[in-house]
Specification:
alpha/beta; Aminopeptidase; Alpha-Beta Plaits; 2 domains; 4-stranded antiparallel β-sheet; 15 helices
């Protein structure tokens, strides 16, 4: 029996255990840094399967790692798992009509329930393979909360969680099956806190100093700043505290959160300093005081080309999820819920991916049933950001995308939440588990690949990982 066949058989024979974990996490739908039930469930399954679990790593209660070693314990393999949900995206499972499960509740609109469960399946499969075939090695499942919030992996990397790990694989629910060929933006975020003087806005406004005015002037300044930054940069904000609801009170306290993105962390740091200067100017204009609470930053993610070679071959061997006619029909019912703007984007993307002559075919059966080869020459910049980037600057890391939703699907939507608890998601997570497990055991037997992968990391990080957040910045467990 080949390694591929063994991995496939093991995961298929235990598939219900892993899909049940995904369904449970989907039901929990816990927000960033509060994934207590989700983390506890994964930890429990790891312990039941012979892993040693260390909870609360890097000062984060819902971050953990589960480890299993055999023989010499070398090489050390890592797999990342996520399990946080998004606010306001509650939706009935597998339902193609917008219908909240919990009014204004959270939902897995990015599919992290499947991500965590699929990675869990891969880690356990690798552990069983090491034991069955008496192979040296250590497999570690890293439980990583809050990817949709302030992140956790940069705090884990800063704390040394990935020290001594030879390589790391992870995956993400997607609409396509491919080794992810994207360079994601670095990001930095902070709360800007303005304090002024309250007063009666009608009778004595001249005695007040408005913190809300300062926030709004900061927004004006940042709007002008946008004209004078590189095209790839992004500046966005949200009011955290608008100073109350009484118009006749001069607001003496207000908080606005800003996030800035750019292709490289060095660019983000420079842009962030410019945003801080805008905030300082707003405080001077309004006679208020301001402070900046830096709380999140991710380094850019860039695929590790050496690991990509291995994973690309494993993905081709495993193949795409085996969709049924019912799956195609379900996917079509979700695609039909989108407006013409989204459908137009879907048509364009399908044409680029599959060819102009197949657009109508794929719109009628909108599930990816193919594998799209990886090419390091086609890595493209993507506007989004992920804390996986920090892992990739600490240790060789690669992300794989596997279809769990219809072609044309938009992430962070009720449609994604619904599909994240459906047959589409279940088949996708099991496929991802097979690909990651096979990639781990293949890479472990290829010292030259591990050496090349490590050389890539050292070239990028200059010899050692440097966290974009200073030691003084702790995980914002209750404030982000």
């Amino acid at each position: 029996m080949t390694d591929r066949q063994w991995i496939e058989d093991y995961i298929e024979n235990n598939s219900e255990k892993f899909t049940d974990v995904s369904s449970s996490i989907w039901e929990f739908a816990e927000l960033a840094f509060h994934e207590f039930k989700s983390a506890e469930l994964i930890e429990k399954v790891l312990e039941e399967n012979g892993f040693d679990v260390e909870s609360g790593i890097a000062g984060i209660p819902t971050a953990f790692k589960g480890s299993f070693s055999y023989g010499t314990g070398k090489p050390v393999m890592g797999i990342l798992g996520e399990y946080d949900a998004l606010s306001g995206l509650s939706q009935e499972a597998s339902c193609n009509v917008k219908r909240e499960k919990v009014p204004r509740g959270a939902g897995h609109g990015c599919g992290h329930c499947a991500l965590g469960a699929g990675s869990l399946a891969a880690a356990i499969a690798v552990k069983e393979y090491l034991t069955e075939f008496k192979k040296d090695g250590t497999i570690i499942y890293f439980g990583c909360p809050a990817e949709e919030g302030a992140g956790s992996k940069q705090f884990m990397a800063r704390d040394g969680a990935f020290d001594g790990v030879d390589f790391v694989y992870t995956w993400h629910p997607s609409t396509k099956n491919m080794v992810e060929a994207v360079h994601s933006n670095a990001i930095m975020g902070a709360n800007f806190i303005f304090d002024g003087v309250s007063s009666h806005a009608g009778s004595t406004p001249y005695l007040g100093r408005s913190a809300l005015d300062a926030c709004e002037l900061m927004s004006v300044g940042c709007n002008y700043l946008r004209e004078h930054v590189i095209p790839e940069a992004r500046i966005h904000y949200a009011y955290i505290d608008a100073g109350g609801t009484a118009p006749n009170v001069v607001q003496d306290h207000a908080v606005v959160r800003y996030e800035v993105r750019a292709p490289y962390v060095s660019q983000v740091k420079e842009l962030f300093e410019r945003v801080k200067e805008v905030a300082r100017g707003a405080s001077i204009m309004t006679g208020t005081r301001y402070s900046c609470e830096l709380s999140m930053a991710f380094t850019e993610y860039i695929p590790n080309n050496a690991l990509a070679e291995v994973a690309d071959e494993c993905l081709k061997e495993i193949g795409a999820p085996k969709w049924s006619e019912e799956d195609y029909s379900l996917a079509k019912s979700f695609l039909d819920t989108y407006n013409e703007e989204v459908l137009s984007m879907a048509r364009k993307d399908i044409a680029e991916t599959f060819g102009e002559d197949r657009v109508e075919e794929k719109l009628g059966r909108p599930l990816d049933d193919e594998i799209h080869p990886f090419s390091k020459d086609k890595i493209r910049l993507q506007a989004g950001s992920t804390d996986v980037g920090d892992v990739g600057f600490a240790v060789p890391t690669l992300n794989i995308n596997i279809a769990t939703a219809c072609l044309g699907n938009v992430g962070h939507t009720w449609q994604m939440t619904a599909q994240s608890c459906s047959s589409l998601s279940e088949k996708g997570l099991l496929t991802a588990a097979k690909v990651i497990a096979l990639s781990c055991i293949r890479t472990a037997e290829m010292p030259e690949i591990m050496e090349r992968a490590r050389a890539e990391v050292l070239k990028r990080n200059g010899g050692a990982y440097s966290c974009p957040l200073p030691e003084s910045v702790k995980p914002p467990l209750e404030t982000y």
